[in-house]
Amino acid sequence: MYILNDVIKTLEEIAPPYLAESWDNVGLMIGTRKQKIDRILCALDLNEQVLDEAIEKEAQCIVTHHPFIFKPLYCIDFDTPKGSIIQKAICHDIAVYAMHTNYDIAEGGINDILCQKLAIGHTQVLHISHSEKLYKVAVYVPEESYEQIRDIIIEKDMCNIGQYKGCTFTLEGEGTFVPLQGSIPYLGTVNCLQKVNERKIEFMIHPKDMKKMLQAIKEVHPYEEMAYDVYTLNNMNKTSGIGRYGELEQETTLDDLIMKLKQMLNISHVRVTNTENKRIKRVAVCSGSGSSFIKRASEVADVYITSDIKFHEAQEASALGLTVIDIGHYVSENIAMAYITSELNSRLKGMHAMSSAVNCEAIHIK
Predict the structure, then answer these.
(1) What is the rounded end-to-end Cα distance, in angstroms, of the chain?
(2) What are the start-end ranges of the H helices in 29-100?
(3) How is residue 346 annotated by DSSP?
(4) Global confidence as pTM
(5) Which of 117, 74, 152 has the alpha carbon at shortest distance from 335?
């Protein structure tokens, strides 16, 4: 049994709230962080059917992609559809949490899932919305502790260099120190110079991960006072944002790509601009409504997979020579619900997370 705050911390590791767009509303919609939780239902949206499913399955929390409360509420009228859902959720002690554009943007989020499904490699961010300075940390450790501390750094550091994880650099050297009166040295004698074979381990890190990483190292570092340096990197920034683009493992045709999309997403149709069956290698994707990035996609891709394309936006794509495949808003995002479910079950041992069986798509083609 967990409390909701434990669940929220895990969700924020998957999709940090600071990544969300400024206009968005993410996080806890309904509930208290002190609530006890052992069953979670994950759904694209919260509606009456999803709430009834949560009640039936005895879930104490619903995790959605789209925020149930998006625009400000000036009253909660139980006789309205939204007010009725709020009343029912509170009466059944069901918390509601949303991870929206932060999950679109996050590494491993919806857009990365789409790229993984389509075997799009060497991916980059389509539209950059965030940029943060990275740091380099240098930790000095005695030779006998080197392997243990380096393994901790590789395990816990989430700062990749391109497509490479666990990047460190090591230098060998000699450290000196004189333990003063009152110290409890790991090596040496008070007031006597001590020489030690040491290694300097260097690695990059995100600012948000700095405190936890240093604490993890200090817990196993043998020295009473751990020596380390922190540098701001001016030549590297961590960028994040909406959408992805990259290259297919193998060049294909438009018709074959559409067929693969239909099979992968279990859909019967898509909407397409520029239907010429050309060869395709570079593909851009954007979950949800991605029409704002048509021009950018035309600069980096042969085909752009997104949803909610309107008439004039389709004309713009055609004029730019870009083929757009509109797979539908619901389809482009609902694919990620199973991944959130899997992550919660993996990270919170003993938790029972479930994907909703309710189809929240508003428009159906028969």
Answers:
(1) 43
(2) 48-56, 81-91
(3) H
(4) 0.82
(5) 117
